[in-house]
Amino acid sequence: MEAEREAASQQYRARWRDSGARTYARRYEDRKPGWRKFYRDSGRYSNERQGWRSFYRDSGKHAYYNNYRPFNEKRTSVTVIDVNAADSAQWERLPGIGPALAKRIVGFRERLGGFYDTRQVGEVYGLADSVFNKIQPFLRLGDVSLRKISLNETDDKSLALHPYINTKLARVIVRYRSAHGPFREVEALRALALVDDSIYRKIEKYLKVN
């Protein structure tokens, strides 16, 4: 059986070779690079290419695609907002701010007791630096009226609810108050080992002694 198949295969190859098809195929392959070079050197290729460029430019599609925007990009105009007065809807109008981030910014502001600097917005969890850099030019600080916490009347759990005061610091404050009596001034917090200059400058604006 195998011998018959091999004999038939050899007979087919011999017929294909004698028919001249093989020679024609080789000539066609040899001529392709020559035709391509002739077409390119004739100038017709360049003229047709320039013609299509002119047609594309003059048809208006060029301007259309240059002005194309992704479907999810906000097309509404961006306006400057007051960081202490803006609601979630106003935050969402800023580039890169969706419903979740807008809600998180407002929540952070409420827990703080208000912003005293627009740069505080950049501290919101999940807000990338690149997004904050985009929205910063549209942020302004209007009337600042911070909600302050009483150092002498607030327990450690309530103190720890503030974003700038962790649980450990809250307990140290209450313990210090119990040992030394009521605070007479906010600056007395500098006596605590956990309160360095950076922390003090962040929390002093949210605290009071009466």
Distance between the termini: 109 Å
What's the overall geometry?
elongated
Main sheet record: 2 strands, parallel
Give the uncertain stretches in residue-range form.
61-75
**CATH superfamily heading of the largest domain:** Photosystem II 12 kDa extrinsic protein
What portion of the residues fall into strands of 2 or more residues? under 5%
Assign a percent range to the helix content: 40-55%
What does it look like?
By secondary structure, the protein is mainly alpha-helical. It has 3 domains: 2-59, no CATH class; 81-140, DNA polymerase, domain 1, CATH 1.10.150.320; 149-208, Orthogonal Bundle (DNA polymerase, domain 1), CATH 1.10.150.280. Helix content is 52%, strand content 4%. The protein has 10 helices and 4 strands. The protein has helices spanning 2-18, 21-41, 44-58, 61-66, 88-92, 99-112, 129-135, 156-159, 167-180, 197-203, and strands at 81-82, 139-140, 149-150, 207-208. Mean pLDDT is 81; it is low at 61-75.
Tell me briefly what this model is:
This protein is mainly α and 210 residues long. The chain is built from 10 helices and 4 strands, in the order H-H-H-H-E-H-H-H-E-E-H-H-H-E. Helix content is 52%, strand content 4%.
Structure keywords:
elongated; 3 domains; two-stranded parallel ribbon; DNA polymerase, domain 1; mainly alpha; single chain; 210 residues
